[in-house]
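Sequence, please.
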């Protein structure tokens, strides 16, 4: 035991592209005592979690539940359950996570077709429709917000295109949910998976997902029940067996459904946590949470620009919750990050692929989409840049951010008094 002290990490402020500091209530929820997995209290919590996430996703989908694992557990569950070997899958790639979707679809033996735009841009609906017409995929798989580029792909018009061409529409909205609008039913999405560690303000380790009736019907045709528990409800499956047991969505649905057929042991502490993330989100109000992310993102962006730093990408399509910042030529990007982390206790993100060494990524997500967090980050970054010999106007970043917050507060007060 010698040398193994109790856990006591430094009080970091996590201002990268995720993970972020948890909402305090979410941390407390994780420390709640367990009950058995078929205890009516637990199954009650499971049903409540389904109902809460229907509201978070803006959907009426019955099949809205948690896949245990980090966000990619949700991605993998959707893709391995939907894809039969040889199925065509179309993936518009605008950043690192599009490549991840392609990689997972390939492992599921899909015939993968990709289209790409340069990092920092998004697709038009026309570009996607043209590709759908030529590929004729079974499934369109896209990311909504790709933290690698900070871009938010507009989805509102794509569902109708998919419907017209009889294509299933899946989206990984891990980075964007909670901080940007996501309307699962209105936008006609068939499957969406997310995680907690971005704007929902929890730790990674649970992947909420929602599935349309059409998607459910498709995966149900592949339902092979485990030997020994087949009963009158289960007809013989017609499709090839889903290759993963853990990520077999029909089995997971039967575990979350009235039948409660045993599958895995629910990760109860993560369920407590996911349930609390949704409660925090809905209690504050979805519109209010998104507005809080927008003002934090606007303030961070204004601060960065006032410091004379250049933001990355097409700002019309930037996610509210993260900004890419070009690293000035006269500083060492990694040294700045290290000093911020070790001396100021503030973490900001590095980058991947074509952006490696070129930009930092600064997030304002969940619990950290707060004025004080924005101000501390800007002031500390300015100080570290000065320590590195890069000169930016003193106090300009913080002042610009403060003025964005002041304007936002005035707008809210004005709207409030107009309603009186
Ligand atoms: C952050 C992020 C993930 C994270 O996946 P994990 O398995 O939780 O690490 C997935 N998709 C997108 C788009 C993300 O931004």
């Amino acid at each position: 035991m010698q040398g193994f002290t109790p856990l006591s990490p430094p009080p970091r402020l996590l201002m990268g592209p995720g993970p972020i500091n948890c909402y305090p209530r979410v941390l407390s929820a994780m420390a709640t005592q367990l009950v058995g997995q078929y205890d009516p209290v637990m199954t009650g919590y499971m049903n409540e979690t389904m109902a809460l996430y229907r509201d978070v996703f803006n959907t009426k989908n019955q099949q809205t539940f948690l896949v245990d694992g980090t966000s990619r557990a949700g991605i993998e569950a959707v893709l391995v359950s939907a894809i039969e070997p040889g199925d065509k899958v179309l993936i518009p790639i605008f950043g690192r996570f599009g490549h991840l979707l392609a990689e997972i679809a390939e492992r599921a033996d899909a015939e993968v077709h990709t289209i790409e735009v340069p990092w920092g841009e998004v697709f038009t609906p026309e570009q996607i429709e043209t590709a759908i017409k030529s590929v004729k995929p079974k499934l369109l798989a896209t990311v909504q917000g790709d933290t690698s580029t900070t871009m938010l792909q507009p989805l509102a018009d794509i569902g109708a295109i998919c419907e017209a061409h009889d294509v299933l529409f899946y989206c990984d909205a891990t980075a964007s949910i909670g901080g940007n609008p996501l309307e699962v039913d209105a936008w006609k999405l068939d499957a969406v998976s997310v995680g907690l560690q971005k704007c929902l303000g929890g730790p990674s380790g649970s992947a909420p997902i929602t599935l349309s009736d059409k998607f459910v019907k498709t995966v149900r045709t592949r339902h092979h029940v485990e030997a020994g528990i087949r009963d009158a409800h289960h007809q013989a499956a017609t499709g090839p067996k889903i290759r993963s047991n853990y990520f077999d969505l029909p089995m997971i649905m039967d575990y979350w459904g009235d039948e409660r057929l045993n599958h895995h042991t629910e990760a109860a502490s993560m369920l407590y946590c996911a349930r609390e993330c949704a409660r925090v989100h809905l209690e504050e109000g979805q519109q209010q949470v998104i507005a809080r992310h927008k003002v934090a993102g606007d303030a961070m962006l204004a601060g960065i620009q006032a410091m004379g730093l250049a933001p990355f990408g097409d700002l019309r399509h930037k996610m509210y919750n993260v900004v890419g910042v070009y690293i000035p030529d006269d500083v060492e990007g990694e040294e700045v990050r290290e000093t911020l982390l070790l001396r100021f206790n503030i973490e900001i993100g590095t980058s991947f692929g074509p952006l490696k060494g070129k930009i930092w990524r600064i997030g304002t997500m969940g619990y950290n989409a707060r004025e004080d967090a924005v101000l501390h980050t800007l002031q500390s970054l300015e100080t570290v840049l000065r320590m590195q010999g890069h000169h930016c106007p003193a106090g300009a970043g913080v002042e610009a951010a403060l003025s964005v917050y002041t304007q936002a507060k005035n707008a809210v007060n004005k709207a409030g008094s107009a309603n009186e």
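The chain has two domains: 13-281, 286-413.
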